[in-house]
Amino acid sequence: MEEESMEEESGGEAIMDDQNHNNWGAGGYGRHLLGERLLPPAGPPRPAGPEHNGAGLRGCEPGAAAGRAGTAGAIAAINISASTSKFLMNVITIEDYKSTYWPKLDSAIDQLLTQSPGDYIPISYEQIYSCVYKCVCQQHSEQMYSDLIKKITNHLERVSKELQASPPDLYIERFNVALGQYMGALQSIVPLFIYMNKFYIETKLNRDLKDDLIKLFTEHVAEKHIYNLMPLLLEAQSTPFQITPSTMANIVKGLYTLRPEWVQMAPALFSKFIPNILPPAVESELQEYAAQDQKLQRELIQNGFTRGDQSRKRAGEELTYNGSSACASSRGYR
Fold it and tell me: Is the model's pTM score more than 0.90?
């Protein structure tokens, strides 16, 4: 019975090794990644014989018992030694990381950074997640973090150069695409590197991966283009329908997320999309707000925004009243 027990233990130990020989433990992270699997038994059942039957004692002489105990001990030693050797032989060296693991991560990051909204990315998120986990366990977090930052920095520098070459009439739209594409990629990249973030960036660097990656876009793209972008945004604001409202909203909110102090460059522009930007309104300025609304209406009409002659005056009066109330509300007037 002891021999059978040792064989069962040996079979259990083999089950706990995955295809990369990383012993993660039954029911642990390895099972989460690889999925629940029905594993075959360690060996075929043995027929019950006299030596296994309580009624028969032929195999229970002291000499036989000692022989079986010695055999069981030898089997245990062999199993432990084999398992240890297998684990040590499959340690992920820095060469393994550079030649096998990082190339997989590099390719996946490339696809995530360059995908368009709605595109299907033919990568295995489970495989990438597993690669990151193993590299963290094998003490390659520092190298992996360095490689990730370098990879994304190079990508953002290319994006910045492409924006610099854009003509003015396409500049705003292309900046909006670059910003949206990058922020969308972070929604996949950050979760894939969650173990590196938890056990290296947060623990040893006292930072957060998402904050670090947003800072990269700020430094390598937004800061280099803000002084070209802001005049174009102000010009587009003064010319209705030059760009879509959704594009303007995405860029203004994105700039505010990247660096809130940029509000000071154009408070009136940011106040249209970010609440409580302007100081509180005062009652004495309501007439001025109404005059601003009337000016906006005239500009809309001059740019082709027309209504029926009979309803235009009435609609303009309602817009003046409602616009004044809305403007006062945006400034915190009660």
Answer: no
